[in-house]
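quick one, 281 residues, struct below
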Amino acid sequence: MLPKVHAKKFFIVLVGAILNAIAMNFFLIPANVYASGFAGFAQLISSIFAEFTPFYLSTGILLFLLNVPVIILGWKKVGKSFTIYSFLSVLLMSLFLELLPIIHVSEDILLNAVFGGVISALGVGLTLKWGASTGGMDIVAMVLSRMHDRPVGTYFFTLNSIIIVTAGFLYGWEKALYTLVQLYVSTRVIDAVHTRHEKLTAMIITEKENQLKKAIHRCLTRGITTLPAKGGFTNADKTMLFIVITRYELYDLQRVIREVDPQAFTNIVETSGVFGFFRRE
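---
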């Protein structure tokens, strides 16, 4: 990857971390509305420590500690580039959570839930769009997809359900309901910025079949099916590469296509399910 691309990717990860920290410290934490995934889990544990023990652990520190074993798992199972930028995202977000003050921007809990969800989703969506993640469940999902192709929605739902139910029991069901509002808003915004669909199908029409296949195989762990194709206007012989990827691999696939064959025509569609073998060993 070119240094210029690395610089852009670092900038996007930095912006994403700042947006997530702003959403947490300015909207969600002051209102006791909980984020999704590891951020919400860290937020919940921090609240429990502050409420029921003489000790205090900040959300930023807990978020970093929760992500350490996941980052190690990602390094071993997913890939260095993805894991490095995901770790950088977690590190920066934890840092900004510590540096930014917790401010009550609004006393309206609904406004806090909506704006917190929108701002955090912008941070997550931008980070995903550029081939990194905010750590936590995204890396777990990536590992599961690489290893067993299990439905990761169950794990997201389970963790978020624990957060919502625990928050409801401890702080009242109104907080839990507003947490559901935040989860819905953030999901819809991520849909718009990137995609929340777990699997995508890419159909690539190219005249550089061999070069593109080799480049994709070097970058991704996915198999490719090739089909003969012909240009409808030029009648030129071409090849269609058919490949199913996870949402985390979309950035790398787009980058490879731009580098090898900028003239290739690519259609990305959402895939609701895959039957059969989904890995290239």
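The longest strand covers residues 237-246.
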